Predict the 3D structure of the following.
Amino acid sequence: MVSLPEIQTILRESIPSLFNQAQKVGASHRKLVLALYKLQMQSAKVASAKDDFAGEDAFGNEFIRNLNKLLAVKKREPCVDRCMRFISAFVQLAYEKDIEYLEKRRPTQSAADNSDIENNNDEEVVEETVFSRFIEFLICYLLRGFNAKEKMVRLRCCQLVAMTVTCLGEMDEELYLELVSKLSERVRDKEANIRVQAAVSLSKLQGSEGDDEARRVTKRLLLLLHHDASAEVRRAVLLNIVKSNVTLPYILERVRDVDAINRKYLFLRVLPTIDFRALSIEYRERILSAGINDRDPGVRRACVQLLGESWLQTVDQNLLELIESLDVVDSPIADDAIKALFNMYPEIPENMDFVEEIWNNLTPETSFLIRVTLEYFAGKGDESNKLDEMLPEVLKLANYLSSFVKKLEDEDDEELLPDHEYVIRQLLMVTRLSDFPDELGRRHMLTLMRQMLVLPEISESSIEIITDILKKLAINERDFTSMMAEVVSDIRESLIENMSSDDEESKQEQIITLIKCLVIIKYLLQRCQEASTSLSQNSSIYGLLSEYAVPAIQSSEAVLQEYGVECLALCCVLDKTLAADNIELFIQAATEGSINLCTTALKALLDLTFMFGIADISINLEQGQLLELFLGQLESDNPEIQALIVQGLAKLLYAHRLPEPSRILERLL
């Protein structure tokens, strides 16, 4: 049996030697840790006449004496870091051995011990071991270093506590409260790296949600996550805080963290641990919108990785189920998200096949998936012939559209109308991808598009797509404008035929029909901008202007005035003379009209200035009148008008379209 003086001598020789070897190379740590553990067990067997734990105390004191040498080093040194990892490895090994020891003892407890436990089942019996006494002794000693003046001492004490606190097991309440108190002080340390280690330690003391002290710990961590100036501290909390209904909103806020690494870690390491189906649709939208539109390419890739490797795996690679969880009918980000997914994982769209049954039983989700997939292949150009393989014949597309248009017209349930309208819009976008090689199908589609434009159930967004399709179906520009003019005329004639009285309901119906006519004219004129068409050479456009746009501007209805001004502005873009003749009308609308009319008129003036130059459109105005209008609107009480004018003037300055650029730049600044 080794005596106490002998074990003390052995410890003074062996422990410094082990620390000395540990600081040189990390590869031998496993062997050194085992040697240190054997010394601890050997020491635990030694007792004195007055103290049964004299050997353990000797080991602890020698261990602390060597630890103090590490804490005293004033700079970051690799050898010290290796020793810190050595200490952590030793504590972890001793903890594992202690768990094994306790597991072996449980089945062999005596009947008397069991009886004692049953009689005292209100008290939790925690058995002390060599390791439990040592780790408590070590933690208590490290806590004394938390208030040291030297920042490296505070850092290393916090670092060791972070490495070893999980090995404490069942600790008494006094030690737990002292730990929380000391760590709460260190999370306010002026040194960021100390706050990082304190935050990591504090996060390991989070208990159940019902525990008051655990709630206070979580609250302190949330304050760090929300307010700490250091990205590293926020990252430490983000990676270690428990996920609950309380913490989740704060965690998801980090999608807007100023640090790109934190945003990336959120998508790669935090969100994959959360089942996205437990999140509300609003949270899913916010996550994807922030990630897909992030300015950092690494964050964007991480977001798509989350979508393709975590969320898709959660639904067993069922892409349709994933799309259903995004509520595509009202989602502003689902389109970009799925396209980004296809770009990163091209094998997903490559392996898709849309059979006849799918086309005949379209839902918002399946129609969305079809449209996005076909647009993906269309964007690849000549690289793949998959678009031609997957796109149905024009006649079949027309039949699919006809069936859903009929459903829309016959539907009595108002809740289903948005779904039908959405499917029609997706089918129209698919139709827009076709080259219409089949003459029979082309004629059938042309007739169907004209019929759809007349229908009152067709939304404005669908009208825009139909206009694109009709332009592709038209022989040339003149044929396109003539065709659209005929459609507008048909809509107006239909209104006149169905008008039964001059009551308020009929007036509202008339206004709605005129708005639809103006919307169609707007989309027509937008698609004529690329062709240098003069109004004097195109009677169709001139007729639409005089019959619809001008009367709308003269109307007493504000909404008609706005659409009328917008259509007139688009006409002016096609004809410089017309622009100069109507410039005073736009100025009057910008100065005397409602906020919406003022905004529309200012957009028109800025566009015409960019198109023709301020001098050419101001020939009927006093010198500098238009420029003074722009500068005067910088003082507008409406922030949207201010923003519009600032953006417009900045673009005009870039294009060298304004006189006195230095004066304008000064006003902008």
About this structure: The first helix runs from residue 4 to 22. Residues 119-125 have pLDDT under 50 and may be disordered. The chain is about 70% helix and 0% strand. The two ends are 87 Å apart (CA to CA).
